[in-house]
Amino acid sequence: MIPWFVGSVVRREGRKFLEFSDKIDLSRIAGEGRTHIDRVSLYIHIPFCRTLCPFCCFNRYLYKEEQARSYFADLRRELDMYVGLGFKFNDVYFGGGTPTVLMDELDYFINYLRSKFEARRISLETTPRELTSETIGLLRQLGINRLSVGVQSFDDGLLKDMGRTLFKGADSIEKLRLAGGKFDTVNVDLMFNFPTQTLEQFKADVKRFKTLGTDQATFYPLMSSPHKMDALSRKFRVVDTSREKQFYDIILHELLDSGYKASTAWCFSRGDRMIDEYIVDYDDYIGIGAGAVSFLGGDFLVNSFSLEGYHKLISDGRLPIVRMRLLSNPEHRRYYMLTKFFGMKLDAAAFRRRFKADIHSKLRAELLFFKTAGITREKDGIISVARRGMYPVGTMMKEFFASLNTLREYCIESGI
Ligand SMILES: C[S@@+](CC[C@H](N)C(=O)[O-])C[C@H]1O[C@@H](n2cnc3c(N)ncnc32)[C@H](O)[C@@H]1O
Ligand code: SF4
Asked: Which of 39, 236, 249, 271 is deepest in the core (most CB within 10 A)?
């Protein structure tokens, strides 16, 4: 009942949240009054994949070498524009798509980026299929700190249902063993609540992760996918959530009870680790690449999703932002609360620093609701998410991502 209620509130808020405007006011990005310019993370979207998974809800395109090379050149120009505006980034996150799809370009890009600013930590996503001893060696040389591998499941039957037929569970295990210990953190992405997935299959996946000793796992509840190019992908437009909580309870039982730490409501680590939720660790972030989203001081900025649109804007020497949404102060505070709860704790002092206000006066009704519902508890100025609050908090985040997916769908359909 509570997850349903909070989910529907976020869905309603999320719809308002994402009423984006096509009026782009670039003076808000580096205009006077921007005080947070030194504490911004950088997300870099590489939207190419060798095959397209039918369930995938991200902005991705089938890999073509020439197009990908031109895209990397555009990314460098977009990076230059932000550096020219005075941005410096500490932590850098490569996501996709598949960032390792063209290793020589990735190599060149990371060196280029390091010549512009000191990247303290770099996180990068890939698929097991891409991982060879050679790629792992190169990624180490490039100073990648966190490597995230999209395994989805170790179960061959389920992988087949997912449309990931080219790779077997045993191959993923071999690749994870190869990468283990070579980076500060190796993460594996696993999915749950897939239509044909049984609870037993999922439990076996979680147990397999534990026996492998991999540092971290991020568990994604299946989210609806906007793509509809064939019958298989159309099947993933609506998601049945009736069993979702049962899957989630397996994660809590298998991992929290065995000493793993919840880095977010979906990410479980052995000890303190880097996570790829830059929206949790950083209040402000810049996203570059096709379909990347930025958040700066209460403003959402959305890049062109289409490769052609993105290329055209960059070629014209412009930032490729096509939509903007300026949050009101209450919306900004609620967004802040949502992202911090997803990261398991909200620090009242950090809230005061950002909003120059007391959290209990500004979010009185919300905090009372979460506390009364047993979702959060407070001690010494830290409002943390209780075990029974983790599923509702994950549901809120899922609804927020679903709102972004709606925007993505609209932009993809309109060729924006
Ligand atoms: C953008 S992908 C990048 C990883 C890599 N391309 C791969 O698939 O191995 C990051 C993760 O998002 C998750 N994901 C993709 N589509 C999803 C969906 N429709 N619902 C929930 N999670 C999804 C998968 O777990 C995937 O590993
Ligand atoms: S799940 Fe990963 S490999 Fe599959 S289409 Fe999405 S980004 Fe590409």
From this structure: 236
Q: What's the pLDDT tens digit per position in 85-141? A: 889 898 999 999 999 999 999 999 999 999 999 999 999 999 999 999 999 999 999
Q: Name the pTM for this structure.
A: 0.94
CB 53 less than 6 A from any atom of ligand 2: yes
Is the CB of 221 within 6 Å of ligand 2?
no
Answer whether CATH 3.90.1210.10 is correct for domain 1-21+328-410: no
Dihedral (CA of 222, 223, 224, 229) sign:
negative
DSSP H helical segments within 18-149, as ranges?
Answer: 27-30, 65-84, 103-116, 133-141
Q: Whose alpha carbon is nearest atom 2 of ligand 2?
A: 97
Residues at CB less than 6 angstroms from ligand 1: 49, 55-58, 95-96, 98, 125, 127, 150, 152, 189, 191, 220, 222-223, 225
Q: Would you tell me how many other CB atoms lie within 10 Å of the CB of residue 89?
A: 26
CATH number of 22-280: 3.80.30.20
Q: Cα separation of 177 and 346, whole Å?
A: 35
**Residue boundaries of the structural domains of the chain:** 1-21+328-410, 22-280
CA 150 to ligand 2: nearest atom: 2
Smallest Cα–Cα separation from 291: which of 95, 93, 14, 122?
95
